Amino acid sequence: MARSINLAVIPGDGIGPEVVAQGLKVLEAVLPADIKVETTRYDLGAKRWHETGETLTDAELERLRGHDAILLGAIGDPTVPSGVLERGLLLKLRFAFDHYINLRPSRLFPNTASPLAGDPEIDFVVVREGTEGPYVGNGGSMRTGTPAEVATEVSLNTAYGVERVVRDAFERASARPARKLTLVHKNNVLVHAGHLWTRTVERVGREYPDVTTDYLHVDAATIFMVTDPGRFDVIVTDNLFGDILTDLAAAITGGIGLAASGNINPGGEFPSMFEPVHGSAPDIAGTGKADPTATVLSVALLLRHLGHETEAVRIEEAVTADLAERDGTARSTDAIGDALAARVAG
Ligand code: ATP
Ligand code: MG
Fold it and tell me: Would you kindly state where each structural domain of the chain is located, as residue ranges?
């Protein structure tokens, strides 16, 4: 456990800087006095791209590599063509720092309205593969723009890549009370990749006899996520299915203002990056309406990743308590951050 944290901060666009400021406030408040945080700010995102045409230079990538972890607000702006910042910044970081785990805990907090009927029990974690699948950019288009166009988008799945994410998911499942792992894929149709995933879960699962495993096709998984979310504990899935399932998971747990995520390089060779699931929300930027809770929960994931479990739990308990006391009165971004900082310090 490190006695100091050398943190890179990418506030980004829209509400990004607003929510990140609250995340840092809570981070400072939760750490004991003998653990120092040193933050370095990187001004990346839409403004930078407009001014210089740059998204992330190789020199910046090199400097980012030297940090213990990265906290990101949000990247994206309607004035930047779609894909420029995603590919040039977010995916570049993910591939350069080998963030092969995309971690999304999904929990329905008390006093938080789920769009699902009744009072569902929701407490599961999605472990989404981060560096393979259809996201590798392997494919192309022939006769582009003509009626005879043919486009392919190859989904890459390697034994190495699948095994390491499956192993990570088993580790996480074995550390949770329910000890259950669900593989989500579509192995009746996507037979090549699907069977690799299925075989890998079976094989690695033999090393984890205390973890129960099961399998769902992704279409069935979307149904269960709505009709019986309590059946899930840890879900392991590929990059594309994970992308879709995690948005659904955020929706059923009362929304985007609360969902945290980590792009993780588990071995620590490269810095992992933590960020709220929501985007830059330009519609509410500058109004003080952004809920910083997702960012604060991302800080908890960051601390847990760096070995500061006690502080991570303290933040999660503070969020739970804060949500339990919400009565519908609107509070500003700052006010929520202050309340959470006071709770974790007290
Ligand atoms: P991006 O392309 O950056 O993902 P987006 O518009 O697709 O942006 P979000 O930025 O996540 O998606 O915003 C979706 C909606 O949710 C918006 O109406 C926004 O105001 C709202 N929203 C997003 N984040 C928050 C937050 N932290 N607190 C309150 N509302 C939010
Ligand atoms: Mg979006």
Answer: 1-101+259-346, 113-252
